[in-house]
Amino acid sequence: MKFSTLRYTLINITYFMAFCTLHAYAAVYLLDRGFTNTQIGLLLAVANITSALAQPMVASLIDRQGMFTNRNVMIICAGIIAAGSALLLVADTNKILVFIVFALIYMIQFTYMPVMTALNFEYQNHGINIIYGLARGLGSAGFAITSALVGGIVEKEGVRILLYLNIVIMAVQMVIVYFFKLPKDAKTGENGKPDESVNDINSEEEASSLTAFLGKYPAFVLMLAGTVLIFFTHNMLNDYLIQIVRPLGGSEKHLGYATFIAAFLELPTMAAMTFFSKKLSMRVMLVISGIAFTVKALIMTLATNIPMVYISQSMQLLAYAVFIPASAYYVSQNISETDQVKGQAFVTSCFTLSGVFSSLLCGVILDHMGVKAMLVIGLIVSVAGAALLTRAMSSTKRAKESSLLTRR
């Protein structure tokens, strides 16, 4: 297929542009529609919970090899988001309807993220050469640029412009995905043979006991607990950033700049992760990430002006940008091959779980105690998470050393 990387890159760019207008500006839109912080928290929690339930259901449909292919599911999801945004344009004065529809399209956007990733590996398995890292990185760049531009546009045109953007972006993505078809003579797997290794691993994972898995990797369980706490604060800062910048004299424009800084700075670190992995162990990288998340929360708590918010956001360079690839490497290096899929799934589940807790609790804290109290509580939670993550990495190191001594 000609220009396969370019076409897949455009899919990523359009996805993350819409992810920005829908997720980064969720609170902006909902506040304008008359929602309280508590109601926003409840809506986001409902969307996170339903997305966690929907993802395995969607994966099951795709695995049946029927009409619900990765490509078809992406087209359907993009269509639902566009249709939902159009519905909100004509009926956004009904708060109950807004709650239901916005929660639905917010959930759909999360749900088909792994489907987009799976599309890449499906095509690669059929011999289509796609440079995934480049495509994913430029997707983040699309998010960053959109963040920088949309804030000022919303200030001038109002929040309804977000819905128009969702419709246009999703329509463009539907067209790109529709024409991104496998050629009829595409091979399957290496040397034209089906690759059954994933299915073999999955069957073993399904047969394994959850209790046995958790008992087998105590350090990993500790890492998961630390991840939930760290990402509680991370999600808090993302979801309620507009409420944080407004008391400091900021607006939607500053929200856009702050989001741009965080997203843009993810790129160099993720791109250089292969180099860093040769110099530092993933255990050290994860500890650095946990500390960076906490420093980010500390600076945001102490912020008295918008430049300090930008400095806080710049810690994304060592926080989120390090954690995402480092955690994947950690699982691959410390979890047995037959438990790989389950290990990666547990890490992803922690992100969703922390999002649920953050959405539910932080909205209530904002309404009853204020922004500063929310930031202080988030900082305390992040410190606890970083401590657990450091302890987990120390336990992992001792377990590896013990294993080496046993072999000798």
Share in helix: over 70%
CATH topology of the largest domain: Growth Hormone, Chain: A
Supply the helix-strand structural class. mainly alpha
State the domain count.
Answer: 2
Beta strand %: under 5%
Number of strands: 0
SSE order:
HHHHHHHHHHHHHHHHHHH
- Number of alpha- plus pi-helical segments: 19
Q: Could you walk me through the main structural features you see in this protein, from its secondary elements to its overall organization?
A:
By secondary structure, this protein is mainly α. It has 2 domains: 1-183, Up-down Bundle (Growth Hormone, Chain: A), CATH 1.20.1250; 207-408, MFS general substrate transporter like domains (Growth Hormone, Chain: A, Up-down Bundle), CATH 1.20.1250. The protein has helices spanning 4-24, 26-32, 37-63, 70-91, 95-111, 113-125, 132-157, 160-178, 197-207, 210-216, 218-239, 241-245, 252-271, 273-279, 282-302, 306-314, 320-334, 340-369, 371-407. Helix 3 (37-63) runs antiparallel to helix 18 (340-369) and helix 4 packs antiparallel against helix 6 (113-125). Mean pLDDT is 82; it is low at 189-208.
